[in-house]
Amino acid sequence: MGMTRATQRATPRRRLVADRVARWTVTAGGLAIIASVLGILVFILVEVAPLAARAHVEPARTVELGPQAVEAWIVNEYRERGVAVRRDGTLDVIDLASGTRLAERRIETDDPRLHVPLALERVAVGNGSRCFVGATANGYVVLQAVGWSVSFDGQTRRVEAELPAALALELDPAQRPLGAFTAALGPDGQATAAAVLADGRLAVVRRDVARNPLTDSVTATTTRTETPLPVPLELLLLDDEGRNLYGGSSASAVVRFRLDGAAVGPPELARSMAPVSALTLLVGQRSLVAGHVDGRISVWSVLPTDGGERLSQLRSFDAQSSRIVGLSPSSRLRSFVAAAEDGTLGIYHSTSERVLWTGRTSGGAPAVPLYAPKGDALYLLAGTRVQELALDIPHPEVSRKALFGRVAYEGYPEPRHVWQSSGGSDESEPKLSLVPLAVGTLKGTLYSLFLAIPLGVLGAMYTSQFLHHRLRRLVKPTIEIMAALPSVVLGFLAGLWLAPRVERGMPALLLLLIALPGFALLAGAAWRALPARQRGRLPAGSELLIQIVAMSLAIAAAIALGPRLEALVFGGSFPDWLLRTTGLAYDQRNAVIVGLAMGFAVIPIIFSISEDAFSNVPPTLVSGSLALGANRWQTVLRVVLPTASPGIFSAIMIGFGRAVGETMIVLMATGNTPLLDWSPFNGFRTLAANIAVEIPEAPHGGTLYRTLFLAALLLFVFTFLANTAAELVRQRLRRRYAQL
């Protein structure tokens, strides 16, 4: 008796301890989930934060170049050696660390008509900091190539300047001083030069080199062309291949000539915002930057039109207020530096339309800018002194407009949203718009829910409220097993098996949208037409068998009539008819395929949760409605459905989240093309699929790497907002129908 009482007294303590342990465990688990989600969010934010970092520009060192003024300056990519050129044709090799002169020589050519020592009126840097271009007083353009040889002595890197003999091209046989001039040095001694002559005409000289493969002899031929100018040009600029010649005019015009060797095509004149004072070409040679006398900067590119192509202005910058006297492009990015007459400097990125940094030169004097080859420094040449500025500009390609706005890209007729993280070469313009990916995510989700919501919710309603309980025990587990199918299997079947069959049978699929509801209604009407006595004699679930037979007949009829419909209405080919009639191309892997495959994956989730919501409606509500004279259908619509609406809404939102985060089905069934198009017959790419595809190839810490984390953050925020809104709606529905 004593033991029994002791046991009775001990039992509540054990239960209390168990209750506390369970409560602590559940609380700890919930807090761990919250901490995990917050940890993921913090990690994503840490990876994304550098995209918003500002540029840092700091003075590094000043190099004295000697007693005579320097006209132009080139450095190697390691910023260890520099080559300076003066008007008297002197070339100096400078050690940047110590500022000492390592070598000195004069520009030499094999043309006996040029005076030695060579006197240059003006000198510029050409071909992406690979050569000096100078003009003589007797009508020649001289190209001095600058190369670098790298060797290693143990662990020590040795950099030496390579200065071959200069190439001289005669632009004016009358040996008069030249006006504006430019030149481009090609491979194997090929070169193109252009200049404005004293009489205002344009002269173009082309030097071609042919090598005999048998004798290894070299033959050089030179051709020359003169042509009148549409407007006076104060500036000329050639691209590296010598195919496009650009000119800038004080008459507020930018001119483009198409060159075929030395042959000059008709001029293409485009009006600019102000007189042009400086020109340069960005990396890739497809964007022309023009500086103007009022301090503004414009970016131009050749864009396709209906009749061919035309030179058009892409964008402009207004960060400086005085005459632009110098421009220098980056050799890796679409960034450039602009120097103004009042000593102000600006660093810009063309594609992102960002003003990366603005400042002033020391003393406020104008300087000739030079972007370092690796983009990690800026050199300002003023007389006999070069000032080096160290640059730290993280992710200049990223801006709000580049990520979410319409951008005027090179070669595109109009501003667009484009995602293209890689191109045919390192010179490709970055296109990092997240808009096509966000739209693709919504597109895939909506098309899948278009199939999943009606079938899932209505199927759950029928199963819980109308189906016989014996069949219900078979149907619900069978549908829930569908959720166990791996998405990679569904994507494989959708992309390789379903997509070609839908392409051949699209008219049959369109017929099926009409035939299935029609045959289902006819089957229901036939069942209701049977006398109640005969319906009572049939076994339970017979109405479901009739519906299955009706749907089978509908599918068979659609398949049989599909080819005839395609021949009569669509001219024998639905894809061709679609292209002719609407201008929309039919991609085999499109949103319809994703809607079918992903809808199949989402249906079990929506069905299972909705069926539970319908089944959890109190039987007293149903009995009370039936007792008041309402039939079964009226009871379901006016009592059961409103009461179960919070759970149904939760089912839809969970299915929505499942569709938003789907990866494999989208990868395998859409063609994975980031198109900004709502057409059901085109492919798309989602945020989740894009991250899965591109993150393995993205350099760690690079712009693409962090942009993909920004896409993950966008997906995180999008899902969080959708779930929050869904919870608010669900709580409101629960309060509204709690009194039923």
Helix content: 25-40%
Mean pLDDT: 87
Could you state the CATH homologous superfamily of one domain? MetI-like
Return the CATH architecture of one domain. Orthogonal Bundle
- Compute the number of strand runs: 33
Distance between the termini: 52 Å
Radius of gyration: 37 Å
Q: What's the assembly state of these chains?
A: single chain
Q: What would the principal axes of the Cα set say about the shape?
A: elongated
Structural class estimated from helices and strands: alpha+beta
Tally of contiguous helical segments: 15
The CATH topology assignment of one domain is: MetI-like fold
Q: Can you walk me through this structure?
A:
The chain is α+β, with helices and mostly antiparallel strands and 740 residues long. Strands 16, 17, 18, 19 and 20 form a five-stranded antiparallel sheet that branches. It contains 15 helices and 33 strands. 40% of the residues lie in helices and 27% in strands. The chain has a domain at 444-502 and 590-737: MetI-like (MetI-like fold, Orthogonal Bundle), CATH 1.10.3720. The longest helix has 47 residues, at 2-48.
Q: Helix and strand layout, with pairings?
A:
Elements: H1 2-48, E1 56-64, E2 72-75, E3 81-85, E4 90-95, E5 101-106, E6 120-126, E7 131-136, E8 140-145, E9 147-153, E10 156-162, E11 167-170, E12 181-185, E13 191-196, E14 202-211, E15 218-227, E16 235-238, E17 244-249, E18 253-260, E19 263-264, E20 268-271, E21 276-281, E22 287-292, E23 297-305, E24 308-317, E25 324-329, E26 335-340, E27 344-349, E28 354-360, E29 368-371, E30 377-382, E31 385-392, H2 400-404, E32 419-420, E33 431-432, H3 435-465, H4 469-482, H5 487-504, H6 506-529, H7 532-537, H8 542-569, H9 574-582, H10 591-615, H11 619-627, H12 632-660, H13 664-669, H14 687-694, H15 703-737
Antiparallel strand pairs: 1-31, 2-3, 3-4, 4-5, 6-7, 7-8, 8-11, 9-10, 12-13, 13-14, 14-15, 16-17, 17-18, 18-19, 18-20, 21-22, 22-23, 23-24, 25-26, 26-27, 27-28, 29-30, 30-31, 32-33
